[in-house]
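Weekly structure sync, notes
Attendees: PL (lead), two postdocs, one rotation student
Agenda item 3: pending single-chain targets
PL asked that the sequence for the first pending target be pasted directly into the notes so everyone works from the same version. It is reproduced below exactly as submitted, 110 residues in total.
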Amino acid sequence: MEFIEDPSKLTCICKSPKMIHPLHIRKSQDGFIFFEVVTEKGDLPTELKGRFSDMPRAKEAVAQYFRTMKETPAARRENFHQEREERKKVKDAAKSKSEDDQHLHQGLGD
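Predicted structure, written out during the meeting:
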């Protein structure tokens, strides 16, 4: 969970490995002192709909949501793909190392 806050613009970007797209906390557009949570893509979860009286309360609501939420299907696919690529790199590195060793052994037999 990562919060990137910009006090001059009164915004905060909230990232989590459980989601691909971050949530944004920003000053409400209606002219009052409230803050709201918005998302770039998709629907906002019902737990985060509404307005918050200050930035720390909005951040705490987002943090609570991130702690209790399940990993989204898109994030699960992305994480699985990254883990698979890492396993593949390790396997390919071991394979190339064994091929290099095989050439060494062939040279010793003469």
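Discussion points:
- The longest strand covers residues 2-6.
- The CA atoms of residues 20 and 74 lie 7 Å apart.
Action: rotation student to compare against the earlier draft before next sync.
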